[in-house]
Design brief:
Elements lengths: L2 H9 L4 E6 L11 E8 L2 H14 L3 E3 L6 E3 L4 E8 L4 E5 L2 E5 L4 H10 L2 E2 L11 H6 L3 E2 L2 E2 L4 E7 L5 E5 L12 H4 L2 E8 L1 E2 L2 H18 L6 E4 L19 H7 L6 E2 L2 E3 L6 E4 L5 H19 L8 E3 L3
Parallel strand pairs: 2-5, 3-5, 4-19
Antiparallel strand pairs: 1-2, 6-7, 7-13, 8-14, 9-10, 11-12, 11-13, 15-18, 16-17, 17-18
Helix pairs in contact: 1-2
Length: about 300
Protein backbone atom coordinates (compact mmCIF):
# COMPACT_ATOMS: atom_id res chain seq x y z
CA UNK A 1 0.00 0.00 0.00
CA UNK A 2 1.31 3.47 -0.88
CA UNK A 3 1.67 6.16 1.77
CA UNK A 4 -1.14 8.13 0.08
CA UNK A 5 -3.45 5.11 0.23
CA UNK A 6 -2.62 4.50 3.90
CA UNK A 7 -3.35 8.13 4.75
CA UNK A 8 -6.62 8.07 2.82
CA UNK A 9 -7.70 5.00 4.77
CA UNK A 10 -7.01 6.92 7.99
CA UNK A 11 -8.31 10.41 7.17
CA UNK A 12 -10.50 10.01 4.12
CA UNK A 13 -9.74 10.73 0.46
CA UNK A 14 -10.86 14.35 0.53
CA UNK A 15 -7.97 15.42 2.77
CA UNK A 16 -5.09 13.61 1.07
CA UNK A 17 -3.73 15.12 -2.15
CA UNK A 18 -1.00 13.81 -4.46
CA UNK A 19 1.31 16.27 -6.32
CA UNK A 20 -0.49 19.25 -4.80
CA UNK A 21 1.09 22.66 -5.63
CA UNK A 22 2.14 24.39 -2.41
CA UNK A 23 2.66 27.94 -3.69
CA UNK A 24 -1.02 28.93 -3.31
CA UNK A 25 -0.90 27.69 0.29
CA UNK A 26 1.94 30.04 1.29
CA UNK A 27 1.96 33.79 1.81
CA UNK A 28 4.80 34.10 -0.73
CA UNK A 29 2.62 32.39 -3.38
CA UNK A 30 5.61 30.51 -4.84
CA UNK A 31 6.84 26.93 -4.70
CA UNK A 32 6.40 23.52 -6.28
CA UNK A 33 4.24 20.52 -5.32
CA UNK A 34 4.18 18.19 -2.35
CA UNK A 35 4.44 14.50 -3.13
CA UNK A 36 1.55 14.04 -0.70
CA UNK A 37 -0.30 16.86 1.09
CA UNK A 38 -2.40 15.95 4.13
CA UNK A 39 -4.82 18.36 5.81
CA UNK A 40 -5.26 17.59 9.51
CA UNK A 41 -7.89 19.07 11.82
CA UNK A 42 -6.94 17.71 15.25
CA UNK A 43 -3.83 16.80 17.21
CA UNK A 44 -4.88 13.16 17.09
CA UNK A 45 -4.85 13.30 13.30
CA UNK A 46 -1.38 14.87 13.28
CA UNK A 47 -0.12 12.05 15.49
CA UNK A 48 -1.78 9.43 13.25
CA UNK A 49 -0.06 10.88 10.16
CA UNK A 50 3.31 10.88 11.92
CA UNK A 51 2.89 7.26 12.92
CA UNK A 52 1.85 6.15 9.42
CA UNK A 53 4.75 8.04 7.83
CA UNK A 54 7.23 6.64 10.35
CA UNK A 55 6.12 3.07 9.62
CA UNK A 56 6.61 3.74 5.91
CA UNK A 57 9.95 5.53 6.46
CA UNK A 58 8.63 8.60 4.63
CA UNK A 59 9.81 12.11 5.62
CA UNK A 60 7.27 14.62 7.00
CA UNK A 61 7.31 18.40 6.57
CA UNK A 62 5.07 20.87 8.44
CA UNK A 63 3.54 23.73 6.47
CA UNK A 64 1.10 25.28 8.94
CA UNK A 65 -0.25 28.67 7.87
CA UNK A 66 2.32 29.07 5.09
CA UNK A 67 3.92 32.29 6.36
CA UNK A 68 7.64 32.73 7.07
CA UNK A 69 8.54 29.95 4.62
CA UNK A 70 9.92 29.69 1.10
CA UNK A 71 9.04 26.48 -0.77
CA UNK A 72 11.44 25.34 -3.47
CA UNK A 73 10.31 25.38 -7.09
CA UNK A 74 11.07 21.65 -7.09
CA UNK A 75 8.57 21.09 -4.30
CA UNK A 76 8.75 18.92 -1.18
CA UNK A 77 9.32 15.19 -1.11
CA UNK A 78 7.40 12.88 1.19
CA UNK A 79 4.37 13.97 3.21
CA UNK A 80 3.49 17.61 3.93
CA UNK A 81 1.11 18.19 6.85
CA UNK A 82 -1.04 21.28 6.59
CA UNK A 83 -2.64 21.80 9.99
CA UNK A 84 -6.09 23.35 9.79
CA UNK A 85 -8.78 24.34 12.29
CA UNK A 86 -7.93 23.82 15.92
CA UNK A 87 -9.42 24.93 19.21
CA UNK A 88 -8.85 27.53 21.91
CA UNK A 89 -10.10 27.08 25.47
CA UNK A 90 -9.25 28.08 29.03
CA UNK A 91 -7.76 25.26 31.09
CA UNK A 92 -7.39 27.43 34.21
CA UNK A 93 -8.53 30.91 35.09
CA UNK A 94 -5.39 32.50 33.66
CA UNK A 95 -4.12 29.82 31.27
CA UNK A 96 -5.45 29.47 27.72
CA UNK A 97 -4.62 26.48 25.51
CA UNK A 98 -4.45 26.93 21.73
CA UNK A 99 -3.93 24.17 19.20
CA UNK A 100 -0.98 24.59 16.85
CA UNK A 101 -3.21 25.19 13.80
CA UNK A 102 -4.99 28.18 15.37
CA UNK A 103 -3.94 31.46 13.77
CA UNK A 104 -2.37 34.06 16.03
CA UNK A 105 -5.11 36.46 14.96
CA UNK A 106 -7.73 33.87 15.88
CA UNK A 107 -6.15 33.42 19.30
CA UNK A 108 -6.07 37.19 19.83
CA UNK A 109 -9.74 37.52 18.91
CA UNK A 110 -10.71 34.66 21.24
CA UNK A 111 -8.89 36.13 24.23
CA UNK A 112 -10.29 39.62 23.67
CA UNK A 113 -13.84 38.33 23.27
CA UNK A 114 -13.47 36.37 26.52
CA UNK A 115 -12.10 39.36 28.44
CA UNK A 116 -8.56 38.00 28.75
CA UNK A 117 -5.53 40.26 28.40
CA UNK A 118 -1.94 39.62 27.37
CA UNK A 119 -2.10 38.78 23.67
CA UNK A 120 -3.94 41.77 22.21
CA UNK A 121 -0.75 43.48 20.97
CA UNK A 122 -0.09 40.50 18.68
CA UNK A 123 -3.03 41.37 16.43
CA UNK A 124 -1.97 41.28 12.79
CA UNK A 125 0.74 38.65 13.31
CA UNK A 126 0.69 36.29 10.32
CA UNK A 127 0.66 32.51 10.62
CA UNK A 128 -0.29 30.02 13.29
CA UNK A 129 0.52 29.25 16.90
CA UNK A 130 2.70 26.37 15.71
CA UNK A 131 4.81 28.55 13.46
CA UNK A 132 5.07 31.32 16.05
CA UNK A 133 6.32 28.94 18.73
CA UNK A 134 8.70 27.15 16.35
CA UNK A 135 10.47 30.41 15.50
CA UNK A 136 9.72 32.21 18.81
CA UNK A 137 8.02 35.05 16.96
CA UNK A 138 8.79 38.55 18.21
CA UNK A 139 7.04 41.91 18.05
CA UNK A 140 7.46 45.17 19.90
CA UNK A 141 10.46 43.97 21.87
CA UNK A 142 8.75 40.81 23.17
CA UNK A 143 8.83 37.21 22.01
CA UNK A 144 5.95 34.74 22.02
CA UNK A 145 7.94 32.44 24.32
CA UNK A 146 7.60 34.97 27.15
CA UNK A 147 3.83 34.39 27.14
CA UNK A 148 3.92 30.59 27.26
CA UNK A 149 3.46 28.36 30.30
CA UNK A 150 4.02 25.00 28.60
CA UNK A 151 3.57 23.17 25.29
CA UNK A 152 2.55 19.74 24.06
CA UNK A 153 4.90 18.20 21.48
CA UNK A 154 4.95 15.14 19.26
CA UNK A 155 8.05 13.32 18.11
CA UNK A 156 8.44 12.30 14.48
CA UNK A 157 7.25 8.82 15.44
CA UNK A 158 4.11 10.17 17.12
CA UNK A 159 4.98 9.98 20.83
CA UNK A 160 3.66 12.89 22.92
CA UNK A 161 5.31 14.87 25.71
CA UNK A 162 4.35 17.99 27.73
CA UNK A 163 7.22 20.46 28.09
CA UNK A 164 7.44 23.57 30.33
CA UNK A 165 8.45 26.80 28.66
CA UNK A 166 11.74 26.77 30.59
CA UNK A 167 12.76 23.65 28.64
CA UNK A 168 11.91 25.06 25.21
CA UNK A 169 15.27 26.80 24.73
CA UNK A 170 13.55 29.97 23.58
CA UNK A 171 15.92 32.59 22.16
CA UNK A 172 15.79 35.22 19.44
CA UNK A 173 13.99 33.51 16.52
CA UNK A 174 14.84 30.17 18.11
CA UNK A 175 13.26 27.28 20.01
CA UNK A 176 14.21 23.72 20.73
CA UNK A 177 11.87 22.59 17.93
CA UNK A 178 14.48 23.64 15.38
CA UNK A 179 17.00 21.30 17.00
CA UNK A 180 14.86 18.32 18.01
CA UNK A 181 12.52 18.30 14.99
CA UNK A 182 9.56 17.84 17.34
CA UNK A 183 6.14 19.11 16.27
CA UNK A 184 3.99 21.45 18.33
CA UNK A 185 0.48 20.18 19.04
CA UNK A 186 -0.68 22.93 21.41
CA UNK A 187 0.60 25.75 23.62
CA UNK A 188 -0.63 27.10 26.97
CA UNK A 189 -0.51 30.90 27.28
CA UNK A 190 -0.51 33.13 30.35
CA UNK A 191 -3.39 35.62 30.37
CA UNK A 192 -4.91 38.08 32.82
CA UNK A 193 -8.37 39.49 33.39
CA UNK A 194 -9.21 42.31 31.03
CA UNK A 195 -12.03 44.40 29.61
CA UNK A 196 -12.75 43.72 25.92
CA UNK A 197 -13.55 47.39 25.39
CA UNK A 198 -10.07 48.31 26.64
CA UNK A 199 -8.27 45.49 24.81
CA UNK A 200 -9.67 46.13 21.33
CA UNK A 201 -8.01 49.57 20.85
CA UNK A 202 -4.61 48.00 21.56
CA UNK A 203 -5.29 45.31 18.95
CA UNK A 204 -6.40 47.93 16.42
CA UNK A 205 -3.30 50.04 17.07
CA UNK A 206 -1.05 47.03 16.53
CA UNK A 207 -2.79 46.14 13.30
CA UNK A 208 -2.64 49.74 12.08
CA UNK A 209 1.08 49.94 12.84
CA UNK A 210 1.75 46.81 10.78
CA UNK A 211 -0.31 48.12 7.87
CA UNK A 212 1.60 51.43 7.91
CA UNK A 213 5.09 49.93 8.12
CA UNK A 214 4.81 46.60 6.26
CA UNK A 215 3.72 45.72 2.70
CA UNK A 216 0.77 43.61 3.77
CA UNK A 217 -1.02 44.05 0.43
CA UNK A 218 1.66 42.14 -1.54
CA UNK A 219 2.64 38.45 -1.25
CA UNK A 220 5.64 38.01 1.05
CA UNK A 221 6.84 35.75 3.85
CA UNK A 222 7.14 38.52 6.44
CA UNK A 223 10.57 39.61 7.62
CA UNK A 224 13.30 37.77 5.73
CA UNK A 225 16.29 38.48 7.99
CA UNK A 226 16.93 38.41 11.71
CA UNK A 227 17.96 41.70 13.25
CA UNK A 228 21.64 41.92 14.23
CA UNK A 229 22.34 40.82 17.79
CA UNK A 230 24.83 42.28 20.30
CA UNK A 231 27.55 39.75 20.97
CA UNK A 232 27.16 38.21 17.52
CA UNK A 233 27.33 41.24 15.25
CA UNK A 234 28.98 44.64 15.02
CA UNK A 235 26.90 47.34 13.35
CA UNK A 236 28.56 50.59 12.21
CA UNK A 237 27.81 53.71 14.24
CA UNK A 238 24.80 55.65 13.09
CA UNK A 239 22.90 52.66 11.73
CA UNK A 240 20.04 51.12 13.73
CA UNK A 241 20.38 47.51 14.84
CA UNK A 242 17.84 46.49 12.25
CA UNK A 243 18.11 44.21 9.23
CA UNK A 244 15.68 46.44 7.38
CA UNK A 245 17.82 49.51 8.07
CA UNK A 246 20.95 47.74 6.83
CA UNK A 247 19.23 46.70 3.62
CA UNK A 248 17.91 50.24 3.20
CA UNK A 249 21.30 51.90 3.83
CA UNK A 250 22.89 49.52 1.34
CA UNK A 251 20.60 51.02 -1.29
CA UNK A 252 18.71 47.79 -1.89
CA UNK A 253 15.10 48.93 -1.51
CA UNK A 254 13.32 48.29 -4.78
CA UNK A 255 16.04 45.93 -6.07
CA UNK A 256 14.49 43.29 -8.32
CA UNK A 257 15.43 39.83 -9.56
CA UNK A 258 12.79 38.34 -11.85
CA UNK A 259 9.44 38.77 -10.15
CA UNK A 260 10.92 39.25 -6.66
CA UNK A 261 11.64 42.70 -5.26
CA UNK A 262 12.91 44.22 -2.03
CA UNK A 263 9.90 46.13 -0.76
CA UNK A 264 10.14 49.94 -1.08
CA UNK A 265 8.07 50.08 2.14
CA UNK A 266 10.24 47.91 4.39
CA UNK A 267 13.78 46.75 3.62
CA UNK A 268 13.33 43.47 5.49
CA UNK A 269 10.50 42.33 3.21
CA UNK A 270 10.90 40.69 -0.17
CA UNK A 271 7.68 40.72 -2.15
CA UNK A 272 6.34 38.73 -5.09
CA UNK A 273 4.92 40.90 -7.85
CA UNK A 274 2.89 37.93 -9.07
CA UNK A 275 5.48 36.43 -11.41
CA UNK A 276 8.27 35.46 -8.99
CA UNK A 277 9.75 31.98 -8.67
CA UNK A 278 11.27 30.62 -5.48
CA UNK A 279 14.64 30.80 -7.25
CA UNK A 280 14.10 34.56 -7.84
CA UNK A 281 13.43 35.09 -4.15
CA UNK A 282 16.41 32.99 -3.04
CA UNK A 283 18.76 34.84 -5.41
CA UNK A 284 17.52 38.20 -4.16
CA UNK A 285 18.06 37.09 -0.55
CA UNK A 286 21.64 36.11 -1.38
CA UNK A 287 22.20 39.42 -3.17
CA UNK A 288 21.02 41.36 -0.11
CA UNK A 289 23.26 39.33 2.19
CA UNK A 290 26.27 39.85 -0.07
CA UNK A 291 25.70 43.61 -0.42
CA UNK A 292 25.19 44.19 3.32
CA UNK A 293 28.27 42.09 4.14
CA UNK A 294 30.44 44.01 1.65
CA UNK A 295 29.12 47.43 2.68
CA UNK A 296 28.88 47.08 6.47
CA UNK A 297 30.63 43.82 7.44
CA UNK A 298 27.40 42.40 8.88
CA UNK A 299 26.33 38.84 8.05
CA UNK A 300 22.54 38.80 7.75
CA UNK A 301 20.87 35.58 8.91
CA UNK A 302 17.60 34.40 7.41
CA UNK A 303 14.50 34.39 9.56
CA UNK A 304 12.45 32.51 7.00
CA UNK A 305 12.55 28.70 6.66
CA UNK A 306 13.42 26.98 3.40
CA UNK A 307 11.27 23.95 2.57
CA UNK A 308 11.84 21.32 -0.09
CA UNK A 309 14.63 20.45 -2.50
CA UNK A 310 17.15 23.23 -3.04
Amino acid sequence: MTIAAALRDSLGPERVHVDRPLGPLTTFRVGGPADVLVETRTSDEVVAVLQIAARSNVPVTLLGGGSNVLVSDAGVRGVVIRMRGGDVHAIERRIVRADAAVTINGLVRWTINHGLAGLEAWAGTPGTVGGAVHGNAHFGGRSIGELIESVRLASRTGSIVDVPAADMAFAYDRSRLQRTDEILLSADFHVADGDPAALRPTARQSLAFRKQTQPLDTPSAGCVFQNPQPGQDVVPDGIPWSAGALVDRAGLKGLRIGGARVSPTHGNFIVNDGAASAADVRQLIERCKESVRERFGVNLREEIVYLGEW
